[in-house]
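sorry for the late reply, my laptop died twice this morning and i had to redo everyting from scratch. anyway the thing you sent over, i finally got around to it. pasting the sequence first so we're on the same page, its 465 residues, then the predicted structure underneath. double check i copied it right bc i was rushing
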Amino acid sequence: MRRLLVILLVLVFVSKTVAQNRTTVFGDKTRVLIILDCSHSMWDRWQSDAKIKVTQQVLLKFLDSVANQPNIEVALRVFGHLNKNSYGTRLEVPFENDNNYKIQSKIKTLVPNGACTAASALSSSLNDFPNLTGDSKEDIQPRNIILIITDGMDDCDGNICDVARQVQMSGVIVQTFILGIGSKKDFQHSLDCAGKFTYVPNEEQYTETLYNIFRMSEEEAQVVISVNDETDHLLEDELPIAFYDTQTGVVKYASLSSIDSRYTPDTLVVDPLVTYDVTLFTTPEIKLKNKQFKPGRVNRLNITVEQGSLRLATDGKRTNYQIPQYQVLVYRHNTNTLINTQLIGETHNYLSGNYDIEILSSPPLRLDGVSIVGSSATDLSIPTPGLANINKPKTISSGSVFTLRDGVLTFVCDLNPNKINERILLMPGEYMLVIKPQNSIKYCSVRTKRFQIESGQTTNINLGN
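ok and here's the structure:
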Protein backbone atom coordinates (compact mmCIF):
# COMPACT_ATOMS: atom_id res chain seq x y z
CA MET A 1 0.00 0.00 0.00
CA ARG A 2 2.82 2.41 0.91
CA ARG A 3 4.60 1.70 -2.37
CA LEU A 4 1.38 2.36 -4.29
CA LEU A 5 0.93 5.68 -2.47
CA VAL A 6 4.48 6.73 -3.34
CA ILE A 7 3.92 5.92 -7.02
CA LEU A 8 0.68 7.90 -7.01
CA LEU A 9 2.55 10.83 -5.45
CA VAL A 10 5.05 10.86 -8.30
CA LEU A 11 2.30 10.63 -10.91
CA VAL A 12 0.58 13.64 -9.37
CA PHE A 13 3.90 15.49 -9.23
CA VAL A 14 4.64 14.80 -12.88
CA SER A 15 1.09 15.67 -14.02
CA LYS A 16 1.33 19.04 -12.26
CA THR A 17 4.71 19.65 -13.90
CA VAL A 18 3.33 18.90 -17.35
CA ALA A 19 0.37 21.19 -16.73
CA GLN A 20 2.61 24.11 -15.69
CA ASN A 21 5.61 23.56 -17.97
CA ARG A 22 5.27 21.74 -21.26
CA THR A 23 7.50 18.67 -21.10
CA THR A 24 9.44 18.21 -24.32
CA VAL A 25 10.44 14.79 -25.60
CA PHE A 26 13.71 15.09 -27.51
CA GLY A 27 14.39 13.01 -30.59
CA ASP A 28 17.65 12.00 -32.27
CA LYS A 29 18.03 15.23 -34.28
CA THR A 30 20.04 18.17 -32.93
CA ARG A 31 19.54 21.75 -34.10
CA VAL A 32 22.31 24.25 -33.42
CA LEU A 33 21.72 27.97 -33.94
CA ILE A 34 24.99 29.86 -34.26
CA ILE A 35 24.67 33.49 -33.15
CA LEU A 36 27.77 35.26 -34.44
CA ASP A 37 29.10 38.58 -33.18
CA CYS A 38 29.93 40.86 -36.11
CA SER A 39 30.36 44.10 -34.20
CA HIS A 40 33.13 46.48 -35.19
CA SER A 41 35.51 45.18 -32.50
CA MET A 42 35.75 41.87 -34.40
CA TRP A 43 38.28 43.67 -36.67
CA ASP A 44 40.75 43.76 -33.76
CA ARG A 45 43.76 41.50 -34.14
CA TRP A 46 43.79 38.21 -32.23
CA GLN A 47 46.26 35.35 -32.64
CA SER A 48 47.22 35.11 -36.34
CA ASP A 49 44.74 37.59 -37.81
CA ALA A 50 41.68 39.74 -37.08
CA LYS A 51 39.06 38.07 -34.86
CA ILE A 52 36.54 37.89 -37.71
CA LYS A 53 39.12 36.29 -40.04
CA VAL A 54 40.10 33.68 -37.45
CA THR A 55 36.43 32.96 -36.75
CA GLN A 56 35.66 32.56 -40.45
CA GLN A 57 38.51 30.08 -40.89
CA VAL A 58 37.54 28.05 -37.82
CA LEU A 59 33.83 27.95 -38.67
CA LEU A 60 34.34 27.07 -42.34
CA LYS A 61 36.58 24.15 -41.45
CA PHE A 62 34.27 23.06 -38.68
CA LEU A 63 31.12 23.19 -40.86
CA ASP A 64 32.84 20.96 -43.41
CA SER A 65 33.23 18.29 -40.73
CA VAL A 66 29.58 18.32 -39.68
CA ALA A 67 28.01 18.79 -43.11
CA ASN A 68 27.54 15.07 -43.72
CA GLN A 69 26.05 14.25 -40.34
CA PRO A 70 22.34 13.61 -40.99
CA ASN A 71 21.20 14.20 -37.40
CA ILE A 72 22.59 17.73 -37.09
CA GLU A 73 20.99 20.88 -38.50
CA VAL A 74 22.70 24.26 -38.30
CA ALA A 75 21.35 27.80 -38.76
CA LEU A 76 23.11 31.17 -38.64
CA ARG A 77 22.01 34.43 -37.00
CA VAL A 78 24.35 37.43 -37.06
CA PHE A 79 24.36 40.73 -35.20
CA GLY A 80 26.31 43.98 -35.70
CA HIS A 81 26.83 43.55 -39.44
CA LEU A 82 23.99 45.47 -41.05
CA ASN A 83 24.99 49.15 -40.81
CA LYS A 84 27.53 51.23 -38.95
CA ASN A 85 26.35 51.94 -35.39
CA SER A 86 23.37 49.68 -36.05
CA TYR A 87 22.06 47.36 -33.36
CA GLY A 88 20.33 45.13 -35.89
CA THR A 89 20.31 41.36 -36.02
CA ARG A 90 19.09 38.98 -38.68
CA LEU A 91 18.64 35.28 -39.29
CA GLU A 92 20.89 34.92 -42.31
CA VAL A 93 20.46 31.17 -42.94
CA PRO A 94 17.48 29.31 -41.44
CA PHE A 95 17.29 25.64 -40.49
CA GLU A 96 16.82 23.50 -43.59
CA ASN A 97 18.29 20.44 -45.20
CA ASP A 98 21.62 20.78 -47.04
CA ASN A 99 22.14 24.40 -46.09
CA ASN A 100 25.85 24.03 -45.32
CA TYR A 101 26.91 25.79 -48.54
CA LYS A 102 24.61 28.74 -47.76
CA ILE A 103 26.03 29.12 -44.24
CA GLN A 104 29.62 28.95 -45.45
CA SER A 105 28.94 31.45 -48.22
CA LYS A 106 27.38 33.91 -45.78
CA ILE A 107 30.22 33.51 -43.28
CA LYS A 108 32.78 34.30 -46.00
CA THR A 109 31.08 37.59 -46.85
CA LEU A 110 30.46 38.91 -43.32
CA VAL A 111 31.85 42.37 -42.62
CA PRO A 112 31.84 43.67 -39.01
CA ASN A 113 30.21 47.06 -39.17
CA GLY A 114 27.99 47.82 -36.18
CA ALA A 115 27.58 47.61 -32.44
CA CYS A 116 27.03 44.70 -30.09
CA THR A 117 23.43 43.53 -29.66
CA ALA A 118 23.72 40.00 -28.29
CA ALA A 119 20.69 40.39 -26.02
CA SER A 120 18.44 41.31 -28.97
CA ALA A 121 19.86 38.50 -31.08
CA LEU A 122 19.26 35.98 -28.31
CA SER A 123 15.73 37.28 -27.75
CA SER A 124 14.95 36.87 -31.46
CA SER A 125 16.41 33.37 -31.58
CA LEU A 126 13.26 31.65 -30.30
CA ASN A 127 11.57 32.38 -33.60
CA ASP A 128 14.39 30.71 -35.51
CA PHE A 129 13.58 27.15 -34.43
CA PRO A 130 10.87 25.39 -36.54
CA ASN A 131 7.74 23.97 -34.89
CA LEU A 132 8.40 25.90 -31.72
CA THR A 133 4.74 26.73 -31.17
CA GLY A 134 3.22 23.35 -32.06
CA ASP A 135 0.13 22.53 -30.02
CA SER A 136 0.69 18.80 -29.80
CA LYS A 137 2.23 17.83 -26.48
CA GLU A 138 3.40 14.58 -28.03
CA ASP A 139 5.63 16.24 -30.67
CA ILE A 140 9.15 14.89 -30.60
CA GLN A 141 11.32 18.00 -30.67
CA PRO A 142 14.98 18.07 -31.72
CA ARG A 143 17.50 19.03 -29.07
CA ASN A 144 17.71 22.76 -29.70
CA ILE A 145 21.02 24.39 -28.83
CA ILE A 146 22.18 27.99 -29.11
CA LEU A 147 25.87 28.79 -29.63
CA ILE A 148 26.90 32.45 -29.21
CA ILE A 149 30.35 33.46 -30.46
CA THR A 150 31.42 36.91 -29.25
CA ASP A 151 34.47 38.96 -28.34
CA GLY A 152 32.82 40.73 -25.39
CA MET A 153 29.42 41.81 -24.13
CA ASP A 154 30.10 44.83 -21.94
CA ASP A 155 28.68 47.22 -24.55
CA CYS A 156 25.63 45.08 -25.40
CA ASP A 157 22.13 46.51 -25.20
CA GLY A 158 19.66 44.83 -22.89
CA ASN A 159 20.26 42.47 -19.99
CA ILE A 160 21.66 39.28 -21.44
CA CYS A 161 20.99 37.37 -18.21
CA ASP A 162 17.26 38.21 -18.17
CA VAL A 163 16.90 37.42 -21.86
CA ALA A 164 18.75 34.11 -21.49
CA ARG A 165 16.46 33.07 -18.64
CA GLN A 166 13.36 33.80 -20.74
CA VAL A 167 14.80 31.76 -23.59
CA GLN A 168 15.66 28.85 -21.31
CA MET A 169 12.25 29.00 -19.62
CA SER A 170 10.60 28.38 -22.97
CA GLY A 171 11.29 24.70 -22.33
CA VAL A 172 12.49 24.17 -25.90
CA ILE A 173 16.10 25.30 -25.70
CA VAL A 174 18.20 22.60 -24.07
CA GLN A 175 21.28 24.75 -23.50
CA THR A 176 22.92 28.02 -24.51
CA PHE A 177 26.70 28.00 -25.00
CA ILE A 178 28.84 31.14 -25.14
CA LEU A 179 32.32 31.15 -26.65
CA GLY A 180 34.42 34.17 -25.72
CA ILE A 181 37.33 35.00 -28.02
CA GLY A 182 39.90 37.77 -27.82
CA SER A 183 41.30 39.31 -24.66
CA LYS A 184 40.26 37.86 -21.32
CA LYS A 185 39.88 41.37 -19.88
CA ASP A 186 36.85 41.82 -22.17
CA PHE A 187 35.05 39.16 -20.12
CA GLN A 188 35.47 40.59 -16.64
CA HIS A 189 31.78 40.04 -15.91
CA SER A 190 30.65 36.43 -15.65
CA LEU A 191 28.31 35.26 -18.39
CA ASP A 192 27.39 32.01 -16.65
CA CYS A 193 23.92 33.48 -16.07
CA ALA A 194 23.35 33.46 -19.82
CA GLY A 195 24.54 29.92 -20.47
CA LYS A 196 27.63 27.75 -20.32
CA PHE A 197 30.45 30.23 -20.88
CA THR A 198 33.88 29.17 -22.15
CA TYR A 199 36.74 31.59 -22.69
CA VAL A 200 38.80 30.53 -25.73
CA PRO A 201 42.43 31.64 -25.32
CA ASN A 202 43.72 30.54 -28.76
CA GLU A 203 42.76 29.23 -32.20
CA GLU A 204 43.50 25.59 -31.34
CA GLN A 205 41.11 25.57 -28.38
CA TYR A 206 38.59 27.51 -30.49
CA THR A 207 38.22 24.51 -32.80
CA GLU A 208 38.43 21.98 -29.98
CA THR A 209 35.66 23.70 -27.98
CA LEU A 210 33.35 23.69 -31.01
CA TYR A 211 33.89 19.96 -31.54
CA ASN A 212 33.29 19.24 -27.85
CA ILE A 213 29.96 21.06 -27.91
CA PHE A 214 28.75 19.20 -30.97
CA ARG A 215 29.98 15.87 -29.63
CA MET A 216 28.17 16.40 -26.33
CA SER A 217 25.00 17.38 -28.18
CA GLU A 218 24.81 13.88 -29.65
CA GLU A 219 25.48 11.92 -26.48
CA GLU A 220 23.56 10.97 -23.38
CA ALA A 221 24.66 10.59 -19.79
CA GLN A 222 23.79 7.57 -17.69
CA VAL A 223 23.24 8.19 -13.98
CA VAL A 224 23.12 5.36 -11.44
CA ILE A 225 21.21 6.67 -8.42
CA SER A 226 22.24 4.91 -5.21
CA VAL A 227 20.12 5.85 -2.20
CA ASN A 228 21.79 4.36 0.88
CA ASP A 229 20.99 4.32 4.58
CA GLU A 230 23.44 5.37 7.30
CA THR A 231 25.04 1.90 7.24
CA ASP A 232 25.75 2.32 3.49
CA HIS A 233 23.16 -0.30 2.50
CA LEU A 234 20.82 0.36 -0.41
CA LEU A 235 17.51 1.78 0.74
CA GLU A 236 14.61 -0.37 -0.37
CA ASP A 237 12.02 2.42 -0.15
CA GLU A 238 11.00 3.90 -3.50
CA LEU A 239 11.48 7.64 -3.07
CA PRO A 240 10.46 10.26 -5.64
CA ILE A 241 13.39 12.14 -7.16
CA ALA A 242 13.47 15.17 -9.46
CA PHE A 243 16.18 16.75 -11.63
CA TYR A 244 15.83 20.52 -12.14
CA ASP A 245 17.69 22.72 -14.60
CA THR A 246 20.00 24.74 -12.33
CA GLN A 247 19.79 27.78 -14.55
CA THR A 248 16.02 28.02 -14.81
CA GLY A 249 14.68 25.97 -11.92
CA VAL A 250 12.43 24.05 -14.35
CA VAL A 251 12.05 20.31 -13.78
CA LYS A 252 13.63 18.11 -16.46
CA TYR A 253 13.14 14.60 -15.09
CA ALA A 254 10.97 13.08 -12.36
CA SER A 255 11.22 9.45 -11.33
CA LEU A 256 11.39 6.99 -8.45
CA SER A 257 14.63 5.76 -6.95
CA SER A 258 14.46 1.99 -7.17
CA ILE A 259 16.45 -1.24 -7.04
CA ASP A 260 15.84 -4.51 -8.83
CA SER A 261 15.49 -8.02 -7.41
CA ARG A 262 19.28 -8.33 -7.28
CA TYR A 263 19.56 -5.14 -5.20
CA THR A 264 21.08 -3.22 -8.10
CA PRO A 265 20.14 0.47 -8.44
CA ASP A 266 18.46 1.56 -11.65
CA THR A 267 20.05 3.81 -14.30
CA LEU A 268 18.51 7.11 -15.41
CA VAL A 269 19.43 8.62 -18.80
CA VAL A 270 19.81 12.43 -18.71
CA ASP A 271 21.00 15.20 -21.00
CA PRO A 272 24.68 15.98 -20.29
CA LEU A 273 24.33 19.54 -21.59
CA VAL A 274 22.32 20.57 -18.54
CA THR A 275 23.54 21.26 -15.00
CA TYR A 276 21.06 19.89 -12.47
CA ASP A 277 19.77 20.57 -8.98
CA VAL A 278 18.58 17.21 -7.64
CA THR A 279 15.81 16.85 -5.05
CA LEU A 280 15.14 13.57 -3.25
CA PHE A 281 11.67 13.72 -1.70
CA THR A 282 12.43 12.54 1.79
CA THR A 283 10.93 14.43 4.74
CA PRO A 284 12.40 17.01 4.80
CA GLU A 285 13.78 16.99 1.26
CA ILE A 286 17.43 16.33 0.45
CA LYS A 287 18.76 18.78 -2.16
CA LEU A 288 21.97 18.49 -4.17
CA LYS A 289 23.12 21.54 -6.14
CA ASN A 290 24.97 21.99 -9.44
CA LYS A 291 25.33 18.36 -10.47
CA GLN A 292 26.91 17.71 -13.87
CA PHE A 293 26.94 14.32 -15.57
CA LYS A 294 29.51 13.45 -18.23
CA PRO A 295 28.39 11.85 -21.49
CA GLY A 296 29.52 8.48 -22.73
CA ARG A 297 30.03 7.03 -19.24
CA VAL A 298 28.15 5.85 -16.18
CA ASN A 299 27.87 8.59 -13.56
CA ARG A 300 27.18 7.64 -9.96
CA LEU A 301 24.95 9.76 -7.77
CA ASN A 302 25.22 8.55 -4.18
CA ILE A 303 22.74 9.93 -1.64
CA THR A 304 22.83 8.97 2.03
CA VAL A 305 19.46 8.95 3.77
CA GLU A 306 19.49 8.66 7.55
CA GLN A 307 15.87 8.44 8.62
CA GLY A 308 13.63 7.00 11.30
CA SER A 309 9.88 6.65 11.67
CA LEU A 310 7.40 8.67 13.72
CA ARG A 311 4.00 7.47 14.90
CA LEU A 312 1.59 9.20 17.27
CA ALA A 313 -1.41 7.54 18.89
CA THR A 314 -3.76 8.06 21.83
CA ASP A 315 -3.05 6.13 25.02
CA GLY A 316 -5.66 3.49 24.12
CA LYS A 317 -8.33 4.08 26.76
CA ARG A 318 -11.71 2.70 25.77
CA THR A 319 -14.55 5.20 25.47
CA ASN A 320 -18.24 5.19 24.58
CA TYR A 321 -17.66 8.04 22.11
CA GLN A 322 -15.64 8.21 18.92
CA ILE A 323 -12.15 9.71 19.07
CA PRO A 324 -11.22 11.80 16.02
CA GLN A 325 -8.10 11.11 13.97
CA TYR A 326 -6.36 14.35 14.83
CA GLN A 327 -4.13 16.06 12.30
CA VAL A 328 -0.47 16.34 13.30
CA LEU A 329 1.77 19.20 12.11
CA VAL A 330 5.52 18.60 12.06
CA TYR A 331 7.94 21.55 12.04
CA ARG A 332 11.68 21.94 11.91
CA HIS A 333 12.87 22.38 15.48
CA ASN A 334 12.79 26.00 16.71
CA THR A 335 11.33 27.28 13.42
CA ASN A 336 7.94 27.92 11.88
CA THR A 337 8.85 25.83 8.85
CA LEU A 338 6.15 23.22 8.33
CA ILE A 339 7.62 20.13 6.68
CA ASN A 340 4.80 17.61 6.89
CA THR A 341 1.31 16.78 8.12
CA GLN A 342 0.15 13.34 9.15
CA LEU A 343 -2.72 11.85 11.13
CA ILE A 344 -2.83 10.26 14.54
CA GLY A 345 -2.19 6.55 14.04
CA GLU A 346 -0.19 7.01 10.83
CA THR A 347 3.54 6.27 10.50
CA HIS A 348 5.85 8.50 8.48
CA ASN A 349 9.62 8.55 7.90
CA TYR A 350 11.71 11.62 8.74
CA LEU A 351 15.38 12.43 8.41
CA SER A 352 17.31 12.10 11.65
CA GLY A 353 17.08 15.23 13.76
CA ASN A 354 14.85 17.19 16.13
CA TYR A 355 11.31 18.31 15.31
CA ASP A 356 8.50 20.28 16.93
CA ILE A 357 5.07 18.65 16.75
CA GLU A 358 1.61 20.17 17.08
CA ILE A 359 -1.47 17.95 17.46
CA LEU A 360 -4.62 19.76 16.35
CA SER A 361 -6.73 18.51 19.22
CA SER A 362 -8.91 20.81 21.30
CA PRO A 363 -6.99 22.53 22.73
CA PRO A 364 -3.87 21.81 20.58
CA LEU A 365 -0.99 19.88 22.13
CA ARG A 366 2.62 20.91 21.48
CA LEU A 367 5.63 18.60 21.71
CA ASP A 368 8.96 20.38 21.17
CA GLY A 369 12.34 18.84 20.42
CA VAL A 370 11.13 15.37 19.45
CA SER A 371 14.18 13.37 18.39
CA ILE A 372 14.13 11.10 15.32
CA VAL A 373 17.00 8.60 15.15
CA GLY A 374 18.10 6.77 12.01
CA SER A 375 16.74 3.24 11.56
CA SER A 376 14.65 3.61 14.74
CA ALA A 377 10.95 4.01 15.46
CA THR A 378 9.73 6.89 17.60
CA ASP A 379 6.31 6.13 19.05
CA LEU A 380 4.55 8.91 20.96
CA SER A 381 1.39 8.64 23.02
CA ILE A 382 -1.05 11.46 23.72
CA PRO A 383 -3.91 11.38 26.26
CA THR A 384 -7.31 10.14 25.17
CA PRO A 385 -9.61 13.17 25.11
CA GLY A 386 -12.52 13.46 27.51
CA LEU A 387 -16.05 14.46 26.60
CA ALA A 388 -17.67 17.63 27.96
CA ASN A 389 -21.45 17.11 27.86
CA ILE A 390 -22.87 20.61 28.28
CA ASN A 391 -26.61 21.12 28.91
CA LYS A 392 -27.82 24.69 28.52
CA PRO A 393 -31.17 26.30 29.42
CA LYS A 394 -32.86 28.32 26.71
CA THR A 395 -31.97 31.49 28.56
CA ILE A 396 -28.27 30.98 27.78
CA SER A 397 -27.47 32.63 24.46
CA SER A 398 -23.67 32.64 24.27
CA GLY A 399 -20.57 31.40 26.00
CA SER A 400 -16.90 30.43 25.56
CA VAL A 401 -14.66 27.62 26.77
CA PHE A 402 -11.17 28.36 28.16
CA THR A 403 -8.37 26.29 29.60
CA LEU A 404 -7.32 27.33 33.08
CA ARG A 405 -3.63 26.81 33.88
CA ASP A 406 -1.90 28.55 36.76
CA GLY A 407 -4.64 31.16 36.88
CA VAL A 408 -4.30 32.01 33.17
CA LEU A 409 -7.16 31.58 30.67
CA THR A 410 -6.54 30.40 27.11
CA PHE A 411 -9.40 30.45 24.60
CA VAL A 412 -10.51 27.07 23.26
CA CYS A 413 -13.84 27.52 21.49
CA ASP A 414 -17.23 29.26 21.53
CA LEU A 415 -20.47 27.55 22.44
CA ASN A 416 -23.10 27.16 19.75
CA PRO A 417 -26.05 29.44 20.72
CA ASN A 418 -28.42 27.31 18.65
CA LYS A 419 -27.81 24.10 20.62
CA ILE A 420 -29.32 23.22 24.00
CA ASN A 421 -26.92 20.31 24.40
CA GLU A 422 -23.30 20.36 23.21
CA ARG A 423 -20.75 17.55 23.24
CA ILE A 424 -17.16 18.81 22.99
CA LEU A 425 -14.06 16.61 23.02
CA LEU A 426 -11.33 18.20 25.13
CA MET A 427 -7.86 17.18 26.25
CA PRO A 428 -7.58 16.38 30.00
CA GLY A 429 -7.21 19.44 32.21
CA GLU A 430 -9.01 22.23 34.04
CA TYR A 431 -11.44 24.46 32.15
CA MET A 432 -13.67 27.46 32.67
CA LEU A 433 -16.96 28.33 30.96
CA VAL A 434 -17.89 32.00 30.56
CA ILE A 435 -21.63 32.32 29.77
CA LYS A 436 -24.14 35.13 29.31
CA PRO A 437 -27.95 34.99 29.54
CA GLN A 438 -30.06 35.84 26.54
CA ASN A 439 -30.63 39.59 25.86
CA SER A 440 -28.47 40.56 28.81
CA ILE A 441 -26.06 43.49 28.41
CA LYS A 442 -24.84 43.77 31.99
CA TYR A 443 -21.52 42.49 33.23
CA CYS A 444 -23.12 41.34 36.47
CA SER A 445 -25.27 38.80 34.60
CA VAL A 446 -22.23 36.97 33.13
CA ARG A 447 -21.46 33.70 34.91
CA THR A 448 -18.42 31.46 35.04
CA LYS A 449 -18.23 27.74 35.73
CA ARG A 450 -15.15 25.60 36.29
CA PHE A 451 -14.98 21.96 35.35
CA GLN A 452 -12.40 19.21 35.04
CA ILE A 453 -11.92 16.88 32.06
CA GLU A 454 -10.50 13.42 32.71
CA SER A 455 -8.89 11.27 30.02
CA GLY A 456 -11.42 8.90 28.41
CA GLN A 457 -14.30 10.01 30.62
CA THR A 458 -17.51 12.03 30.17
CA THR A 459 -18.05 15.12 32.28
CA ASN A 460 -21.65 16.35 32.55
CA ILE A 461 -22.02 20.12 32.92
CA ASN A 462 -25.50 21.49 33.68
CA LEU A 463 -25.66 25.25 33.18
CA GLY A 464 -29.25 25.41 34.45
CA ASN A 465 -28.03 24.95 38.05
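The chain has four domains: 25-130+138-217, 220-304, 307-382, 386-462.
thats about all i looked at so far, will dig more tmrw
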